[in-house]
Amino acid sequence: MKKIYPTLLMSLLLAFTVQAETSTYRLTDFFAGESIIRLEGKADSLDFAIPLSSIADVKEAVLTLDVVSSRALIEKRSQLVVRFNNATIGQIRFDPARPSLISEVKVPNALWRDGFNTLTLEVSQHYANQCVDGSAPELWSEVNMYNSTLQISTTNNVSNFTFDKLNGFFNPGIGGVRAVSLVTATDTEDDIKQRTLSLVSQGLALRNQYQPLAIQHATFPEGYVLPELRDTTNQSWTDKNIQRYERSAWYTTQVRKNQDTLLGNIKSITEPLHVLVGTAASLSPVLSDTQVDSIDGPYLNTQVTPAFSIGDRVIIPSTYRLIVSGITTEDVHKAAEALAVMDDSINMVSQISVLSLSGMDATRMQKHHIAAPDNTYTFQDLGISSAQFRDEGDFSKRASFMLPADFYVPENASVGLLLNFGYGAGNGPGTVLNVKVNDELIHGLALDNPNGQVFKNYKLSVPARYLKGGVNNIDFNVTLRAPLAGVPCDEVAGKHLVFQLENSSAIELPDAGHVAVQPNLALFGETGYPLARFESAPASTIVIPSQDFIDSALTLSAKLAQVVKAPLLNMSITSEMPEDMKGSAIILGTPESLSQVQQTEFTTAIEATKKWSYRLQNSLHNRIRNATQDMSFKAMKIDGNIVQKSDLGPQAILTAHANPQSEDTLFILAAQTAELLNERVNDLVSLSMWGQLAGDFFAWSDDNSPSLVMQVSETYEIGESDDAWLQLRLWLSNNPWYWLIGFVVLVFIVSLLIYLLLKRRNQKVQDTW
Amino acid sequence: MDNSQHERLIFKERYVSVVLIACLLLGAFLLAPMDAIGQLFASSIVILTIGWCSKEARQTQKYKNFFRVLALVLGTALTTRYLLWRGLYTLTYTDLISAIAVWLLFIAEIYAGVTSVLGAIVNAFPLNRPLLTLKGINTEGLPSVDVMIPTYNEDVDILEVTIRAAKVLDYPKDKLFIHLLDDGGTDQKINAKDETAASKAKARRIKLQKLCEKHNITYHTRAKNEFAKAGNVNSAINNTRSDLIVILDADHVPTSDFLDRTVPWMLKNDNVFLVQTPHFMANPDPVERNYFSAFTRMPSENDMFYGTIQKGLDYWGSSFFCGSAALMRRAHLELVGGISGESITEDAETALDLHKLGYESVYVDRPMVSGLAPETFDAFIQQRMRWAQGMTQILLLKKPFKSEGLKWYQRVGYMSSIMFWLFPFARIIFLLMPLAYLVFGLQVYHASMLEILAYTIPHVIATYMISTMLFGRTRWPLVSEIYEILQCAFTLKALIKVFLKPRAPSFVVTPKGESLDKTFVSPLASVFYWLIFILLFAFFTGVIKFFSDPLTRELTVVVMLWNGFNLLLLLSVLSVLLERKQVRSQARLPATNNVVIRTIKGNAWVGDLVDLSIGGARMRLKGEGALFSEEATLTAWCQPLNKNVHLPVKVLNYDSKLSLLRVQFTPCTEREHSEIVAFALADSRRWMSFQRRRTRAITYWYGAKHVLSVGLKPAFLHFMHALEKMAKKISHKISSAKE
Fold this sequence. Notes:
Chain B: It catalyses: [(1->4)-beta-D-glucosyl](n) + UDP-alpha-D-glucose = [(1->4)-beta-D-glucosyl](n+1) + UDP + H(+). By secondary structure, chain A is α+β, with helices and mostly antiparallel strands.
């Protein structure tokens, strides 16, 4: 025993005193605005947040700023102050002789906090020692946010892995994981592959919030082959060593990727955390007997597996693992459901046996964060906080809320905004409030009462057409200006200025139908529609031609859950092409595998032979025409197709079509090979690319920008099938000719009948003459 | 009822059922929901179709009536669709005041829609009757006729012209009896407590008695002035015996063929109680004179009613009595106790009573009576207030919409005529409603720009297109709006009084033959100044709103256009309020007779009349450079008298460049006086020709352009007039200060 404990302790130390992980981030990764920001005037500042995972301990952080300043700034009084969580960590003097500078600022480790850390870049800029005009155009400096970086070294601080730490691993902040492996037995049940893996992926991705999470699926071998103990000639596979080996996550070095043939490459899992999914029986080769015995229903467990090392050599490193298991596949699924919805922070334990789950209604889950039409919500209900702006400057408050993706209102419907806000006394000229809805300016108000003013239920009636399905933003842009002193070179300080927007403000939503125009990849990207809907949660499928594509499918389902902000309980992954393709589906594949899909009705078809719509050609042609401004050749507007035989090359293509077998949408996602598709799916779910989804034809070959985005197919509507009136409205709106023909025929009949009646009467009158 | 009749009735019932079912289906189609883009597309096609149909309907071709009906059904469908959309989707409000404003506007629109649909029914198939004559009918069998000329306070000169014209009516003299019904010289008037008034009444009675004696006609008066004109006529009816009765207002001069063209309809059908003819106005009303100055070029106000609507009403057996220029059957009148007097529009009321009894009316579309329109705006408003009040009284007291005895189409006809007079309510709402939005910020019209384009604009365009198709010849575009705006403020007040006390209004005789010896601003103008001020204020508020409220810019622009249109019309009506000086006492109307001018020395010139009145004439002489003595004789063929007349004239002026000679008639004898009246006023062919000349077809845009182009100049004149007035006041003050 005495020998064992030092060895175990050593193993743990070796495992967790791993070297710090160093990452470099561009500041644009934390900032949604322009890549170059300009700070103007005598004083200006910019705040942005840097998230940090709770499991990460910062060992070192260096901020590198790429700054350009105006040559007009005087040296002693112009500087850039860098603050971190309100503490000044650097002061960079602007030098007119050296207007372009790159400066490094060390961020003290002690200043870092879990969650969001505020980095403030604040400038004071002067072109003279006295009488500086605050609005002078030469008072500027620029920070290149793309070139500016944060280099940060972190270590993992988790020693006791309980569920409350799960949020630290799956966290959008620095230190959170960006990829995870789901490990199952080779012969794991189909139900787990089809439903449960997807749900586990979604549950983990939801913790990652907006940060993409690449999911990989791997299988562990049924038995293990003990590795050779090279360089440890004095050691041999004793029983004790074998027991230690079995307790470790030995399988992480021997997983296979290709489960269909069992011929796939043996790989190692490199991520610090992996998830074991399966029934107790199927997981028994990798779990201890005690643990297998403790599984008596839906079961969740977090563990730190001990490292297996011989001497100084770590053969199997220590890992964090999450176990999702149960006696039956249904138990496993239930455990996955619990994982998807549970609140980690209150579970400071490492093992949970789920006894029951209620309220797991797919529809309710999908709409819980969506503002329902014909309701009034206060900002507080929508999770929007109050805002208070102080001092002179430009401020903004964004109120974001989700509407059903298929939010459909008549032309004249309006949304009421009942605003509660106020401003203090002593505002100067130019103090204004502007309100924008989805970037459309809807209201402006001069805050010009010298004594200040408070508004309660200040009503703005906004046409509902300004709102859209998905995320809607209401921006309150406030400019606070100090009054004019009226004396040259004397200014009134703006410390007294205050504006306040209360979260008791409300939004009145009109009644709306549930219909959306399809195909629309932008809507799909923003809301997951039509796979996730407000009114119902129909079964949706991701079809893969073989298990080689499961990583892509899992990553995609995880991303959709992030988009929907809820698990998609009715989503499944199948490797068999359903004969009757009803509802919404995403079909993944290569051109060869997609030949099974009937694509003759589609404008574009990706098969061994590809059919490209002329509209794609038009777009290219017209884009060149516009770019060169050579109007000597006409804009191209022709319809037709090119059928060609070729590879897709390095790019992937996502298309959306009307499902020919039902009133729904079919997505096809293809790349030349399964590996390439997985790479492209990882590109697609990245923050930069997912937001660019648009049209119904989307091609890309990296994670920067799409190579082509087009609307190729004719649009159609899908939505409430039970609302006949709405259906009629849509049908007629899309086919006014039918209405017109019917109308004209009826008018003709009525006119003819009336004419004959009138003529008859006229004849009768004339007969009396 | 025999079998064939019964079968016909069943067939008719089934046929009407089919029509109703088809209409219901059409209604369901109009209710069908469709987005604004689809509606806009459909509306555009419908508008184009209406344009094509209305064009075809105005051509002389076999199916023109079918195209007319098709255009009317399409227009009605668009109006119905618009009202359904307004009612179902746009009546949104947040507070009580908004609710009131929203509903007021919608009610006004419903009113406009209903009157438009009723108008479409009434005018769907105007009846064109042939011209009948008594020629060839044995005079022995002709009915006797009493021509009644009721008078209250009209000048003797006016009356004498009417009497002289009545005397030359082409009808057997032994069967024609002319009566002057004097209500200004009743016993009640003569014995009035006010001695001045009493002596005036007495003098009037004597004067009129002498006039009657001179012309050998019967003078009538009565003890009391009860029931105004109706009472006066009824009193005479009790004291006369002829089979037929002609009622002529004091200023209504009949042409000689009046009885020749109307009596045959009485002979053809014993069930006919009324033969109405148009009122042809020999002088412009204040709007025509002050605003358009185009009396001889554009249709008169009543051309629309007499040229189109009465023909439509005639088709539906509901043309009604218009107080004068009508032939009535005594037997039928006696059945309802003579002329009805419950309302102050006794004429329409009498017709309604007789229609209810199943008797028939006939409308002969030939101007055979020329009358005088009110000269001043004041008198014009007085006349219209009486009509509006009277028709509303009929609505409230007689309820024609549910009168027993009336056929459904007669009810439609009466309701169409009566509903029209409720326009002040709607017009005031349309005028002031933009203020609710621009000034008070009430959103009274809850629609997007696209919806306005898809529903409102097509409805408005279709309404104007249908209006142009139906009334294009007899009413120029925007003229109706101007008349309505002019009357609305005053008639609204009068209508409210009727609604409060339906029996209160009393008959007020419209002043006619007033002289306008100088240009002045009507005393009624102040209402319009205020309205213009308010609308201008709304306009400027709208401009501010446009910049301050970007969210509602689209709507603001639409409402400002609406307000601007109202403002333009209001500025236009200012010209009517500027009462222009009238040079001649009698308006000269175009004439084309061949004439010969002969001087005392025996020289003679041949020429063609250019215009003519009972005061004088203008003619273009053939031949060059002529000198005239001051006195001459004009010789011309007088159709009413069927002979040449030789009329003494005084030469006023000769324009040798244009060969235009202006003369004044200088009759010395009774015969000459009568011949002048017969020559100048008793030939209906001249009125026909004149009317045809001014009821020509024009394009909508030409008419609208003309109306608007002449409308803005007066705003400037009003401004100048106000300045002049102010300058006079200042100079007066200065001079009194000096004194």
